[in-house]
Amino acid sequence: MLLIYCPYCQIERAEIEFRCGGEAHIARPSDPEKATDDDWVEFLYMRSNTKGIAAERWRHIHGCGRFFNAVRDTVSDEFLKVYKTGEAKPDLEAIAREAGK
Amino acid sequence: MSQPFRTEKGGRIDRTGELTFTFDGEEMHGHAGDTLASALLANGVHLVGRSFKYHRPRGILSAGSEEPNALVGVYRKGDQTPNLRATQVELYHGLQAVSQNRFPSLGFDVGAVNDLLSPLFPAGFYYKTFMWPKSFWDRVYEPIIRAAAGLGKPPKNPDHDTYGNLYAHCDVLVAGSGPSGLAAALAAAETGARVILCDEQAEFGGSLLSENSATIDGKDPAIWVAEIVARLAAMDNVTLLPRTTAFGYFAHNFIALAERVTEHLSDPDPRLPRERLWQVRAKEVVIAAGAIERPMVFPENDRPGILLADAGRTYLNRYGVKVGHKVLVATACDTAWQAAFDLADHGVEVVAIADLRESPPESLVSIAAARGIRVEAGCVVTGTLGRKRVRAALLGRMMTSGQVAAGGQIECDALLMSGGWTPTVSLFSQSRGKVVWEAETGAFVPGKSVQKERSAGAANGLYGLQASLTDGYAAGEGAARAATGKSATINHSRTSGGEAGTGGTLGALPHDRNASRVKAFVDYQNDVTAKDVKLAVREGMQSIEHIKRYTTTGMATDQGRLSNMNALQIASGALEKPLTDVGLTTFRQPFTPTTFGLFAGVSRGDFFDPVRKTPSHDWVVEKGGLFEDVGQWKRAWYFPKNGEDMHAAVERECRTVRESVGLFDASTLGKIEVAGPDAAEFLERMYTNPWKKLAPGRCRYGLLLNDAGFITDDGVIGRLADDRFHVTTTTGGAPSVFATMEDYLQTEWPELDVWITSTTDQYAVAAIQGPKAREVIAPFIEGIDLSAEALPHMSVKEAMFRGIPCRLFRISFTGELGFEINVPRRHGKMMWETLAGEIEKHGGTAYGTEAMHVLRAEKGYIIIGQDTDGTVTPQDAGMSWAIGKNKFDFVGKRGLERPDLKAENRKQLVGLLTKDPKIKLEEGAQVTTLENPATGTPADGHVTSSYYSPALGRTIALAIVRNGHALEGKTLYVPMPEGSIPVEVTGTVFYDKEGARLNV
Ligand SMILES: [Zn+2]
Fold first, then answer.
1. pTM score, whole prediction
2. Are the Cβ atoms of A59 and B742 closer than 8 angstroms?
3. Quick one: which of B31, B67, B132, B737 has the fewest CB in 10 Å?
């Protein structure tokens, strides 16, 4: 059971309070009409499925209910960074280097 | 009473009283402090089970949780718990144990014929022997394997025990209470850190409890243990958990402990649970799990009477039990010599020490000489004799050529063996750490930590008493400092004796026997021999993971703690690759077998899953209605009257709704309040339909897609005000629709000023449907005009129901005039009983979900998840009318434009009428264009809904059929075992196609 820090509640809570929402920073094209079929397939189905440092969405579903983003090492399950929805995607390579991964 | 193998004195048992127990019905005696294994040995019983595959007689091998052979069933409260390790079962008065895997008796087992037929059971026999013919699997092979193989029989009754569960936090968790564990716990506790110390055994102390040739601070080690434990027990910051196995190391230092609370008691307090699951979050973990001894792989190394050397020493020193009267000690390392010396000191005849090494340490040889023990150096055991107990061993002389020369036979009634030591790295491995090979000790030891843990003592590859203590202190201090930043200075105890010693061996030992005839066991519990491992390699298995699965070595309950290193060495030799290149399999949770009860805890029976009841629940029970489970909800299914069967009851309910009026509990439908200045814009983007122009007081059917373009939910949405909507969802879809709305709102359109709130549990909903619906509700509704002009079909108003504020919808899921009244949940029972009474006066009826399904199918209203399956678009379902053509965007709009979703030949929702109106199709049956398609022909669709329709006086069905919309009027077929059923394709609306009955 993971321990996850909610950046809105500003507290660490057990995983059962949260729901993972898959890869982060997959933006829905703002003008869907202009998106090509390939764009749409990319948006719908293509995920990097990273073994290692990945940014993913989490929702504090049984707490404040907010979505936020977290950088997690999918091998060790270590959380390396937690940030609010809307903040820019961090440099994952820099985070990995800093963590010695 | 006679316990012929009990020592005169010594051991930690309570000799002041005797306990009576039975094994396979035979009465025996032991003492408090015994395990079942030590008590059996004291009574001279070695034969305790039959092996898994060959049904060979097997005896107690070890004194710990790694025991592979001595699996027994123990009766408590009239039921049997199978597969308990006798080495872990504490003796109590009246204990009833039985042996397993034998028929008809342990002494004479017909399954033993498998041993003679062993050529039939080579490595991979599961894959080879039972391949053909395929049909034999179900009827012949599997039942035989299940009957012949296997361990104990599962109990037949529900578990009568209870199980506890608690969460705990600590600074330092110490797993294991041998020398390094105790030192670590003390060092950490003295800093003030919160410490949990657990050990799988009944008493703390580990190996120190059977160590009497060394001293700590000049004291007997057991006395030192008692003093340390007393110190720890007196500290408020320490939790001591004996009989508690750390069985799982999970992410973020989450450790699962299984505490055995009452199983060791003959008459436990009935309020106490059998076991307790501790879920511990530790800031730091010290793994002090020790090491276990390796068996030696020589022919017939599995006879009863053959034990690990340290187990023999433990039984002697800790339990006061001699494993035999004439004992042969076979070893490749120093530590086993001490077992021989201790036995000799208790007057046991040690017939010889056979050491594999050409020149064992001179110091040991001279001690042996002083006790008159015969020493055979450069000597290997090449076989054993005896059936139910070893009676002699064959010795071989190691020659410089690597060959073995026969070295005679030696009589013995017990054989102690030691191939050296293997650090217990299971927990470390579970923490996802990788082990590293340490050539000098010939062992895999913990490498870099991945989580906040450190191994100490023998688990860390450090042997010898002083080294273990020193490592333990350092680990405890280090862990406390890392967890709390605090440190403390404590006196470190000094030891004398208990040296680490040298030596050890891996793999199969050489012998002079006919290799094709003898069995040298590597994995006792799964009956895997050295030959099997070699065969697996010859047959192409290269990786240890494949060898493991092919031979099943290491797949027993000890997860290969006893067998892995020997198997690895044998594989390495056969593959001609260095051992480190063959790889080690990963240890996984749980460390030892763990009961299902522990995991289930209180989540059983009524507590297994919450039950959600609607306001009409008690009324339905009272009226004899039947319930249907819909997710966690109990929904009224139908209401049989006067002995009606389901068909008759449903037919009556349907007719009554169409002819007069029916009452239905719709409280389970999902409800979401969408409010705020951008509420209409938000729904505009979520649902396919347009919402901005919907006037307050009006409703619209809403269709929800995912962004792929497929239908995921539907429901009626009412606009209460410019900035407020009452959204309904399907019963099953309520949580996911709400979560999806939150997702889009928070992450895609955070600029929208909208709040969404789940209100499913806030409202009780009664649906009143039928021509007399208006008359039924009229007496109770105040504040609004119910006429068709003022409240037309698809409208919503806020009103009062018997003085209670309500939301009154005029909507219909039956095709009749209908109302749905929403009142606050606490008034639901009053509303239901009021309306149920009123309905009676009008000749109406309550109806359940079955009639609801028939009525909606007659009207072609779809059920999401029944008539759709996640690949159906609005066009496929014939619902293009629900799409707002002029909308800029909505969830699924772009998805619908994908070529495959607009392609020809998609499966589409149609109605089906059987040519014979009496035949009701099976839901799920395949639909084909050919009357008798050849086997293997793909179907063109399937039946999604099928009912007898009282309104039509015949059966009706809905189906998803390829190109269905173009096939209207055509004949298709539903092939069934009894013959193909011809059907005509129709539209989906079977009753009142114009909708005249709705607008009254
Ligand atoms: Zn939160």
1. 0.89
2. yes
3. B132
